[in-house]
Design brief:
Blueprint (H helix, E strand, L loop, with lengths): L24 E3 L13 E6 L25 H4 L2 E6 L8 H17 L5 E5 L2 H6 L11 E4 L10 H13 L6 E6 L9 H15 L2 E6 L15 H14 L5
Parallel strand pairs: 2-3, 2-4, 4-5, 5-6, 6-7
Antiparallel strand pairs: 1-3
């Protein structure tokens, strides 16, 4: 169960930000959108996968709620957008293609600083943005990919392929947690991520299996934001303005 409480506000997209149909992203209903002429930048949030017919509580019309640390982003003057993926039609390849189209659209309507962050399946899709340093400045990916033993080789191959396509310089934050049943090989993935960062010259922040929080939902646990939220947002967005 998600341990979050959020005040959900229905908001309209400001005219300055362009028409909603121009984007595969939607403005968050949790955080207000200022638009590219006012906001310092845009963070695109990719939630985890949603299965067809999965019950979505009415208090979370976006699907999964935002983790607590994400509230630090609008507090820095950045807009938060969400990638409006379709339940049941969420292949990694099509997800990556839509993400890139959306990032191009954000730049076209005037955002000059863009960051991508995700959780679970959304985080794995976010890895595709590592290949486009012309479109984004930073990526956060606590990526995991499947639990069945027979899927482990493909999961690791997909992860390695996305790292192989990465280009720098960017900022890359990679988080893994103990007792995550969706993680096929945390030691191997941590080593591959750090090697990729060294190869490309990326700035690299690794949160690798801290004592707490734990589990696949660790970034949603109440102690994640006090422990890592400030450090994470400082890394992704840069130091706070004076």
């Amino acid at each position: 169960m998600f341990r979050l409480a959020a005040l959900l506000l229905l908001i309209a997209l400001p005219a300055a930000a362009g028409p909603p149909e121009a984007l595969p992203f939607l403005p968050s209903v949790v955080f207000p959108i200022s638009g590219p002429t006012v906001a310092r930048g845009a963070l695109v949030w990719l939630q985890g996968g949603i299965s067809p017919g999965q019950f979505l509580p009415p208090e979370f019309p976006e699907g999964q709620p935002a983790p607590d640390w994400l509230a630090r982003v609008p507090a820095r003057g950045w807009d938060v957008w969400r990638y409006n993926r379709v339940a049941g039609a969420d292949a990694l390849s099509t997800g990556a293609e839509g993400l890139i189209r959306g990032l191009e659209a954000l730049h076209a309507i005037g955002y000059h600083h863009v960051v991508v962050a995700g959780f679970s399946r959304g985080a794995f899709i976010a890895l595709s943005a590592l290949a486009r340093p012309d479109l984004i400045e930073a990526v956060l990916s606590p990526a995991a990919h499947g639990v069945r033993p027979e899927r482990r080789p493909q999961a690791l191959a997909d992860f390695a392929a996305r790292l192989a396509a990465a280009k720098g310089p960017l900022r890359f934050a990679f988080a893994q947690f103990n007792d995550d049943d969706f993680d096929p090989d945390p030691k191997l993935r941590a080593r591959e991520a750090s090697e990729m960062a060294a190869r490309t010259g990326m700035a690299y922040l690794q949160i690798d299996r801290p004592p707490a929080p734990t589990g696949h939902m660790a970034s949603y646990e109440p102690d994640f934001d006090p422990l890592f939220g400030q450090r994470l947002v400082d890394f992704l967005l840069g130091p706070p303005p004076d």
